[in-house]
Automatic annotation (TrEMBL):
It is found in: Mitochondrion. (6S)-NADPHX binds at residues 171, 224-230, 293. It comes from Mus musculus (Mouse). Keywords: ATP-binding, Lyase, Membrane, Mitochondrion, NAD, NADP, Nucleotide-binding, Phosphoprotein, Transmembrane, Transmembrane helix. This is ATP-dependent (S)-NAD(P)H-hydrate dehydratase. The chain crosses the membrane at residues 23-44. It comes from the Eukaryota. It catalyses: (6S)-NADHX + ATP = ADP + phosphate + NADH + H(+); (6S)-NADPHX + ATP = ADP + phosphate + NADPH + H(+). One of its GO terms (molecular function) is ATP-dependent NAD(P)H-hydrate dehydratase activity. Its cofactor is Mg(2+). Belongs to the NnrD/CARKD family. Signal peptide: none annotated.
Length: 365
């Protein structure tokens, strides 16, 4: 279908189900205001112009509405059916590469989010010291304390053939030994054509060595504002234009060989160098650490689902774009729901508790 560039904002009034596209309320509001002002100004004698303007604005709104309906539908199309015919593992075996002495929360958040979204198994590959801590948070994660060992790449390679997607970076840290091992793991992942989501310190590594991921069409980068600027400077060697974030996202993707880039922020901007999708799903003003980890873990599963579903289910749109838009929408909805309950005290753990209901509201038909 080729969704081009859509701006989506679901309103938070509570009357409209977030799962049923409460679309283009933003555009609707702006359009209504413009129409009201112009109609007052030009009064009755210019009524033909007014009519043309009104028609143009409602057409624009209708397109935004249609685009958003389409995106929700495309995400629904990729979600695998729950049936009694499947065995454990079929809906996703996801690897998380991250977790060091300082950061144990981030790989946990990413791994547990992947499971809560619907993956069957999650493997965390982390530094030795981080492993007992991560295991103690949750019995659901399979934890391999291998990332700082001398044969880290071989240890991870043993598991790679069984993994459907890899999420690289949450809580990885910037120790040279770990980063060097992750470089080898990424090479191996590419050689096996496994989709990879790169976040946090994984993006630090990519900024040091963009060739590592250049043109790998199963890669998705999920930078926050700071990480995006760092990548931009590394790849384009110039200051970025912060007045044109959409254009910058498109350009960074192109400069990296058209890999998918998700620039997180007040609105999430998603590009594969050809299209830019905008995710404006209502979230909240609460910015506790770990929300990006929830996003990267969710995306790990959704990218596997989208690629497995095939192009007919995504109606010609890039499966990676559809997966990224779905994961951003889900993360923001978790944030909205958790904030409604806990307000200022909302933490990422509260958001993870909301994954099930948020997913059903958005994507279950
Ligand atoms: N519980 C855990 O274990 C968690 C662990 N985590 C892990 O931590 C590691 C480092 O990740 P990171 O994101 O803190 O790294 P980095 O890019 O050095 O940012 C540092 C500084 O940049 C700024 N800043 C950030 N965002 C900004 C924005 N949008 N807009 C503007 N400024 C912004 C801000 O600077 P400040 O405002 O303090 O000057 C911030 O302090 C990584 O492994 C990650 O996975 C996290 O996942 C969280 C949960
Ligand atoms: N200003 C904002 N308004 C609304 N949502 C936001 C805003 N900034 C970020 N988000 C949402 O929060 C989620 C995480 O983005 P964020 O920029 O906080 O990532 P991060 O810094 O990598 O997080 P982490 O603390 O996990 O490292 C994304 O889904 C994004 O849409
Ligand atoms: Mg982050």
């Amino acid at each position: 279908m080729g969704v081009r560039c859509v701006a989506i904002r679901a309103c938070g009034g509570g009357k409209i189900d977030p799962g049923v596209p409460r679309m283009a309320v933003h555009a609707c509001g702006a359009a209504a205001a413009v129409v009201a002002l112009l109609s007052a100004a030009i009064a009755l004698q210019w009524s033909p112009l007014y009519a043309v303007l009104q028609r143009a604005l409602s057409l624009h709104t209708a397109h935004a509405t249609k685009d958003m309906e389409n995106l929700f539908q495309l995400v629904r199309n990729i979600v695998p059916a729950l049936t009694s015919k499947k065995h454990k593992g079929q809906d996703g075996r996801i690897g998380i590469v991250g977790g060091c002495q300082e950061y144990t929360g981030a790989p946990y958040f990413a791994g547990i989010s992947a499971l809560k979204v619907g993956a069957d198994l999650t493997h965390v590959f982390c530094a030795r010291e981080a492993a007992p801590v991560i295991k103690s948070y949750s019995p659901e994660l399979i934890v391999h304390p291998v990332l700082d060992s001398s044969n880290a790449v071989e240890e991870v390679e043993k598991w790679l053939p069984r993994l459907h997607a890899l999420v690289v970076g949450p809580g990885l840290g910037r120790d040279d030994l770990l980063l060097n091992n992750v470089r080898g793991i990424l090479e191996s992942t590419k050689a096996r054509d496994i989709p990879v989501v790169i976040d946090a310190d994984g993006l630090w590594l990519v900024a040091q060595q963009p060739a590592l991921i250049h043109s790998y069409h199963k890669a998705i980068l999920t930078p926050n504002h700071v990480e995006f600027s760092r990548l931009w400077e590394a790849v384009l060697s110039s200051p970025m234009d912060s007045n044109d974030l959409k254009g910058s996202t498109l350009k960074l993707s192109q400069a990296l060989g058209n890999i998918t880039v998700v620039q997180k922020g007040e609105q999430d901007l998603i590009s594969n160098g050809q299209q830019v999708l905008v995710c404006n799903q209502e979230g909240s003003s609460r910015r506790c650490g770990g929300q990006g980890d929830l996003l990267s873990g969710s995306l790990g599963v959704m990218v596997h689902w989208a690629l497995r579903a095939g192009p007919e289910k995504t109606n010609g749109s890039s499966p990676l774009l559809v997966a990224a838009w779905g994961a951003c929408t889900l993360t923001r909805e978790c944030n909205r729901q958790a904030f409604q309950k806990y307000g200022r005290s909302t933490t990422t753990t509260d958001m993870i508790t909301e994954v099930g209901t948020a997913f059903s509201r958005l994507f279950t038909t």
